[in-house]
Design goal:
2 domains, 16 helices, 0% strand
């Protein structure tokens, strides 16, 4: 496999700025891509979180799907999430080329041609929605289609380059999976999946901003108006704390509304307080350099664990209650 450097005009050096990125506007032919590049195009880490929360929604639904259909539904949601990630990278190929964090991705590095990636993404998107319609129902398939379009068009194409609140509004796209999983099994949307949607919606800004603060120079170089770039670190830290408070309050709602048992209620309370306890040092931190942003680094790492443990406790609570 070729290196990630300048065999293709899209592979712009991280410090090249907008002038260097101009060359990225052409379509570069694939140069020695292998299957791992096509997997990277799907953003597998983001996909895994979508699959996990969708599977939780499916398990929590009051109706049970036949195992093979349930597996097909989860695979369709996974492929749909991957399609959204691929469309995101197609749209942002020039932006990714200007950022050190993303310059090695298959498109800016020139290992996959942009038109090939677009065809691949559209094929996956259409296929995943079709399979979900056949394996589950039209409601779930429609929600999957909306989530793909919301991530690729509303967030990536419209919000991200225009407003520092992009992740607040665009975070709704990432909050769909538990609703889709529930709808696939139940054929409708209940209150519990809507609460899970709300929790992910509130979780996304502090999770994302904790990372964005540490790579804000990349976003500034790429011209992306992320909150740490447009409003500074102090304002971002205040908003992280505010969202942490809202998240700590929203987490126990399924228990408080009688939709989950005490196991979940205790877990949600403890996890919310832990999230808040890690957000307070972020709000108090006055560091500017990436090496001084250790509280932000700890919050980002815990935020991933938070969501996994919260959903796992909800499923465990439901299974224990069923017995």
């Amino acid at each position: 496999m070729p290196t990630e450097a300048a065999t293709c005009p899209t592979a712009v050096a991280p410090g090249a700025g907008r002038a260097g990125a101009g060359a990225a506007e052409g379509v570069c032919p694939s140069i020695g891509s292998d299957w791992t590049d096509w997997v990277r195009l799907l953003k597998p880490r983001v996909m895994s979180l979508a699959v996990f929360t969708a599977a939780c929604g499916l398990v929590l639904a009051p109706e049970r799907m036949p195992p093979l259909l349930a597996l097909a539904a989860i695979l369709a949601i996974a492929v749909g999430a991957g399609a959204a990630g691929a469309l995101n990278q197609v749209i942002e190929a020039e932006v990714d080329a200007r950022m050190a964090r993303t310059a090695a991705r298959p498109l800016p590095a020139g290992r996959i041609a942009r038109d090939e990636a677009l065809a691949f993404a559209l094929l996956l998107a259409c296929g995943s929605v079709t399979v979900l319609a056949l394996a589950a129902n039209l409601l779930a398939a429609g929600l999957l289609a909306v989530s793909i379009l919301a991530y690729a068009l509303v967030y990536t194409l419209w919000l991200k380059p225009r407003t520092p609140q992009n992740i607040v509004i665009g975070g709704a796209a990432g909050a769909f999976p538990p609703v889709i999983g529930w709808a696939a099994a139940a054929g409708e949307v209940g209150l519990l999946p809507l609460l899970l949607f709300l929790i992910i919606l509130l979780w996304t800004p502090p999770h994302f901003w904790a990372l964005a603060m540490r790579v804000r120079a990349d976003y500034a170089r790429a011209g992306i108006p992320m909150l740490p770039v447009t409003h500074g670190l102090e304002a971002t830290r205040r908003q992280i704390l505010a969202y942490a408070v809202l998240l700590a309050a929203a987490g126990p709602l399924p228990f408080l509304l009688g939709l989950a048992g005490p196991l979940y209620g205790i877990s949600a309370l403890a996890l919310g307080l832990a999230f808040l306890a890690l957000a307070v040092p972020v709000a108090r931190n006055r560091g500017e350099e990436p090496t001084a942003l250790q509280p932000e680094k700890r919050l980002f790492a815990f935020s991933i664990l938070y969501l996994f443990l919260l959903f796992a406790s909800l499923v465990t609570d439901a299974l224990v209650g069923a017995r």
